[in-house]
Write a structure and sequence with these properties.
Helix content is 2%, strand content 24%. The strands form three sheets. Strands 1, 2, 3, 4, 5, 6, 11, 12, 13 and 14 form a ten-stranded antiparallel sheet that branches. A two-stranded antiparallel ribbon has the order 7-8. A hairpin with a 3-residue loop joins strand 7 (151-153) and strand 8 (157-159). The chain is elongated and about 80 Å long. The chain is built from one helix and 14 strands.
Length: 302
């Protein structure tokens, strides 16, 4: 009985077209990476800086920079995603805390600087926290702006400077109110224009009917009077800075958590690893995945 011969493809066969192998083609992924916002300080304190913002989508990124370059990624490869937490509120007579960094693959955004109380050093971050009369917290280049200066009216009434935002510095405090938080940046990566990374408002002072500063668009919290009246936290998943609290008593406000959003061709599917909270929607010829908490790995398939 004649034996049937089976041909085993060789490297030469592949190169000549027999069962030709095509390596995966890299594909572009756009991103928005916003870090956690800082928390405001308490005791004539500044508002907190917003989390740093980096994006490749649209024309503008944080800190007045041009939009960054999309990432060229591959299937069947792990990429790390971390959503930075907002900084926790602090008790009376303490400086605010810095928010946590957010990451996607090689992109890292720096947590927002905390707002500082009336007599301490300034807090740098993705955007800077509201600072002292002679110095402010600095933002990170390409991510956010500086905080605003504190004001002293006759060494009696003290109001806090606003925290920096993604598109503007925090306003300096005045003799009538705390400084407003710097404005955030509107990004349409999800298909809807949404503002992120607004700075927190600086503290007011009830002794002279000085109002707290308003939070910046993009999730910044409002500054408060003594005891926390009018005070508000940064909005979750915007990276907004928390408001600063005024003279006498009360805690500050927490920063808003960050967010990581990616946009990629709808011919690909993302697998979200344990430890991450995320969801995916389709927008035209693309998919958009939004991560709202946690840290872990993701990978793509075709």
């Amino acid at each position: 009985m004649a034996q049937t011969k089976i041909k085993i493809p060789s490297l030469v066969d592949y190169e000549s077209g027999y069962g030709a192998y095509s390596p995966p083609v890299p594909f572009n992924v756009d991103y928005l990476v916003v870090a956690g916002g800082g928390s405001g300080g308490s005791n004539s304190a500044g508002g907190a800086g917003a989390g740093g913002l980096r994006t490749s989508y649209g024309s503008t990124s944080g800190g007045g920079a041009s939009a960054e370059t999309s990432l060229s990624l591959a299937v069947a490869t792990n990429y790390t995603v971390t959503v930075g937490a907002g900084a926790a509120a602090v008790s009376y007579n303490n400086d605010g805390l810095q928010g946590s960094d957010s990451t996607f693959s090689t992109i890292t955004s720096v947590g927002g600087g905390g707002g500082v109380r009336f007599d301490t050093d300034d807090a740098d971050g993705g955007s800077g926290g509201g600072g002292k009369p002679d110095n402010v917290g600095s933002g990170t280049s390409g991510q956010g702006y500086d905080g605003g200066l504190r004001s002293t009216d006759g060494a009696t009434y003290t109001t806090g400077g606003g925290g920096g935002g993604a598109t503007a510095a925090g306003s300096n405090a005045t003799s009538s109110s705390g400084g407003a938080g710097g404005a955030g940046l509107s990004v349409s990566i999800t298909g809807t224009s949404t503002a992120y990374a607004g700075g927190g408002g600086g503290a007011g002072d009830t002794r002279g009917s000085r109002a707290g500063g308003s939070g910046g668009t993009g999730g910044g919290g409002n500054g408060g009077y003594n005891g926390g009246s009018g005070l508000s936290a940064g909005v979750s998943n915007t990276g907004g800075g928390g408001g600063g609290n005024g003279y006498s008593s009360g805690s500050s406000a927490a920063g808003g958590s960050g967010v990581v959003i990616i946009r990629y061709p709808n011919t690909h599917t993302v697998a979200i690893g344990s430890g991450l909270t995320g969801s995916t929607a389709t927008n035209g010829s693309d998919k958009v995945t939004t991560f709202t908490a946690g840290t872990g790995n993701i990978s793509f398939s075709e």
